[in-house]
Amino acid sequence: MELTDLTQEQKDKLYLKIIDAVKSGGADKEVMELILAEHPKLVYIKEQDYKDFLITESEYLKQRLEQTRAKTEQLEAEYSALKAHYEKSVSKIAQRLRMDQQEAHSFMDWLYSHNPNPLVIGLRPILEIISIYWRLFKRKKYIAKVEE
Q: pLDDT tens-digit profile of 100-114?
């Protein structure tokens, strides 16, 4: 069995142990013994195979790191776009229903907690009826809950 025969999960664990051993000042012989202790089926390891393994694994981990960074940036952009859309919706609601921003935020929180479907927001008559209900009954209860 060779280093290339290991699964990716085994390679990742082994690579981290090798890096820790090298950082703590372990010599190549100690690292080889660590590898053999971890995977006894690796009867012997050529030095070139060991170096190739380290290079390949570090390139793989760098590639995964770049993919993770790209995905994180994409998710952050989507989150900020959603947040901007939410704030725009809140300001529209505040203008249409003559509320201040805090009331509009609490109204939107209440609305989404009772009906998470955002299509309701586009239906102006229903929204106005809900806002009247909110103003008359729920507003006092919601504010009392928040203050507690």
A: 778 777 877 777 666
Out of 36-40, 51-55, 57-61, 122-126, least confident range: 122-126
**Has residue 142 been placed in a domain?**
yes
Please indicate, yes or no, if residue 69 is contained in any of the structural domains.
yes
Residue 138 belongs to a domain? yes
How far apart are alpha carbons 110 and 140 in whole angstroms? Answer: 12
Kindly give, in sequence order, each residue whose CB lies less than 8 Å from that of residue 21, ignoring residues fewer than 6 positions away: 30, 31, 34
Confidence of residue 137 (pLDDT cuts 50, 70, 90): low
In a domain, 36, yes or no: yes
* Domain span including residue 65: 3-73
Question: Which positions ≥6 away from 86 have C-beta within 8 Å?
Answer: 108
